[in-house]
DNA sequence: AAATATTTTTAGTCTAATCTAAAAAATAGG
DNA sequence: CCTATTTTTTAGATTAGACTAAAAATATTT
């Protein structure tokens, strides 16, 4: 059985590797874990010994097959619990992360699967992130980012790429949430900011924000 | 914040002190925690330094006011989660203890209270144990033990004193569960075994079993 | 009450996960 | 391409929680 620390490292290595598919650096892991590079090195060596990561000194690490399986279980649990907190207990999507960070370490396969059933097998968590199935597989999603839409095109907000507290709070403030239908009114070539219409209002968001919103075409 | 180990000790000291109201011995704590007496001593000293237990060398320990408050929060969480697991996820009462042992350490007052609301403020967990309220108070229960009933008296099973796995499995086997109405048919003076009738069957249980069943008069 | 047995504490070790400081390797700039 | 900077690793220390072995206190027997 893995310790919570080991599980957290696996999860972060997964998250960092997801984007680039490349080796993850010791420093980037240390930063994510809010610890020192030396501590990250120690942990990488331990995880490598257990066969959970492929690690080359001074080069970086990536999850092994075995490590990825473990990571996906944790991601699955995290996202199921977030769904539970929002759908059943009435939390809002910007309140659930820290609690799910704790709940994701509860050990019980039966519990995870019964929770999944209780939630009626959700495919995405409250942030629009896909929930891996029992086998740790993520069903491919056909979403794109808002920044890829052109003027007059429409889509439905299905998720956020950046689920940080500050970003979610910002979305709450400007009244954008999952399920909103959004139409592109104007794109400012100078800074890539986008003016959108979500039926109730017309607002301008920065290019950066547009890159962090997942959209599905209607 | 307390570590999980500290929380577990507090909970066990509470459980051991509940019965007798007296000082709890180092050895009995060690046994409950499945550790060595020396480890228990270490922890008692630490908890005493934090003002969570009153501890006298070679004498034993009891929870301080502060320690009891903390213990009750943990007991409350444990029993709420057990209720969730049985009522919402369909576990049976003999399957939930180990999972609740993990869930009881999740830190979030809001979560605990929302869970309580979601479960519609249950007064007792699936084993019939009372659930402390937000202030850590247990609402007095008027139940007695089955062994105190006389021949021909009736009552409803409302809980078990011993919630051990083996006892719960035994009750399942002989088809006794919470809510059953039970009538005393005969008491054998020789060994205090009791023959009972729960409408569907007549069975004989040992005096020890009779001492571990809580009964409410109709 | 002395001798024996049991319980509890102390002293010293161990492991996991962290840290600081210093050494080693990799990268970047002139 | 060689020096400066950054990144990464190693070495050694620390803390929480557990352990063993031995010492100290308490309980039990005779």
Question: What count of structural domains of chain A?
Answer: 3
Q: What oligomeric assembly is this protein in? A: homodimer
Q: Roughly how many Å apart are the termini of chain A?
A: 44 Å
The level-1 CATH class of the largest domain in chain A: Mainly Beta
CATH architecture of the largest domain in chain A: Roll
Strand content of chain A: 15-25%
Strand order across the largest sheet of chain A: 3-8-4-5-6-7
Instruction: Report the CATH superfamily of the largest domain in chain A.
Output: Ferrous iron transport protein A (FeoA)
Number of strands of chain A: 8
Number of helices of chain A: 8
What would you call the structural class of chain A? alpha+beta
Largest inter-chain contact set: A-B, 19 and 19 residues
Named CATH topology of the largest domain in chain A = SH3 type barrels
Average pLDDT rating of chain A: 91
InterPro entries (chains A, B): DtxR_MntR_Metal-Reg, Fe-transptr_FeoA-like, Fe_dep_repressor, Fe_dep_repressor_sf, FeoA_core_dom, HTH_DTXR, Iron_dep_repressor, Transcriptional_repressor_C
Subcellular location (chains A, B): Cytoplasm
GO biological process, one term (chains A, B): negative regulation of DNA-templated transcription
Pfam families (chains A, B): Fe_dep_repr_C (PF02742), Fe_dep_repress (PF01325), FeoA (PF04023)
Fill in the keyword field for this structure.
DNA-binding transcription factor activity (chains A, B), Iron_dep_repressor (chains A, B), globular, transcription regulation (chains A, B), SH3 type barrels, 218 residues, 8 helices, Arc Repressor Mutant, subunit A, homodimer, six-stranded antiparallel β-sheet, DNA-binding, alpha+beta, repressor (chains A, B), two-stranded antiparallel sheet, 42% helix, 8 strands, 3 domains
